[in-house]
Amino acid sequence: MAKFVTPVIQDNPSGWGPCAVPEQFRDMPYQPFSKGDRLGKVADWTGATYQDKRYTNKYSSQFGGGSQYAYFHEEDETSFQLVDTTRMQKTAYQRNRMRFAQRNLRRDKDRRNMVQFSMQTLPKSAKQKERDRLRLQKKFQKQFGVRQKWDQKSQQKPRDSSVEVRSDWEVKEEMDFPRLMKMRYLEVSEPQDIECCGALEYYDKAFDRITTRNEKLLRSIKRIFHTVTTTDDPVIRKLAKTQGNVFATDAILATLMSCTRSVYSWDIIVQRVGSKLFFDKRDNSDFDLLTVSETANEPPQEEGNSFNSPRNLAMEATYINHNFSQQCLRMGKEKYKFPNPNPFVEDDMDKNEVASVAYRYRRWKLGDDIDLIVRCEHDGVMTGANGEVSFINIKTLNEWDSRYCNGVDWRQKLDSQRGAVIATELKNNSYKLARW
């Protein structure tokens, strides 16, 4: 039979509501609120200030402790930082923009003055005096170097030498660039191949058809390149026992022959063993790095770890040349093999990991009892129209920033004005191209 159970009624003499918290609601957090309050914003992206002051507390709670979850915009002084007001150093492109503009204005003014002078009617004696004055002025400038040409600027900053010159060193002979430029060896006999080593892959002629519209990405090819100096070459050590009295590599000889164009510091080591001379490069040096815009009017000047510092640009250019010289070949296919294997490949080394490089040890007799033996390198081989075999070296130039060094944008000019690109690179990289 149904019955009615009377509920427990709590009497609260000092107010209304229960006297104790029920067990199911004992640990539940509670915040007093009012249903008329607006919901506060976590972050006001439309702006923290209001033009009308009436809307300043629009989202604040109007009841009890409800303002705990409302958003107030307060200035946080803990995260306050001073603004760096130091002046940033201008790049070479920005720094010399006014200089080039002033130079062009000065050149136009001189041209107008010359035109105006040529239009004046002078007697014969006055014209002859003016010619004599101009001739003497040019002779004086040429003799004493009063005014430099527009493309012959002085060195902007002192560069570090590749080796420390000690005070106790004795100078045997000093040769300046004008004397070196006049030195020529006109009659050079044909070289004689003494020994040929290594194997070469064939050049892929599909790379001749690449344009800016038909581009091809440069791949990273994991191959080993050996940059062994002269005295560490086992073949040269063997040949030095029986023939030759001067030994070097093609890279060292090319550096010496084009030294009048160089700007950065470098050095080589010459060792005399009995009556024989060995030209070596220094270990762990930057001798094998390919410089970028070394002979430009405004060479790279940035320091430290900047992408455009001279050393980082040289490392990038060397990396590009190594990969490009292998990507242009038909890798994994038929090879042109010389009679002797690569002297720098060890027995336990994978032959596919070694770069396609062959070495020809050539001999020149230069007279005056100079018997020169040089190790020459080749990157690939190419077959001609009649089937003749030609050994080639693959080199490449890379663009780094067309705004500097009076450069041109390759992507815009390489197809239509290829000669302008080559002319600019011949000026900015004359030393590197002379070595090649």
From TrEMBL:
Superkingdom of the organism of origin: Eukaryota
GO (cellular component) term, any one: eukaryotic translation initiation factor 3 complex
Database matches in Pfam families: eIF-3_zeta
Keywords: Cytoplasm, Initiation factor, Protein biosynthesis, RNA-binding
An MF annotation (GO) of this entry: translation initiation factor activity
InterPro entries assigned: eIF3d (IPR007783)
Sequence ranges of Basic and acidic residues compositional bias: 148-165
Location of region: Disordered: 145-165
Protein name per UniProt: EIF3D factor
Lineage: Eukaryota, Metazoa, Chordata, Craniata, Vertebrata
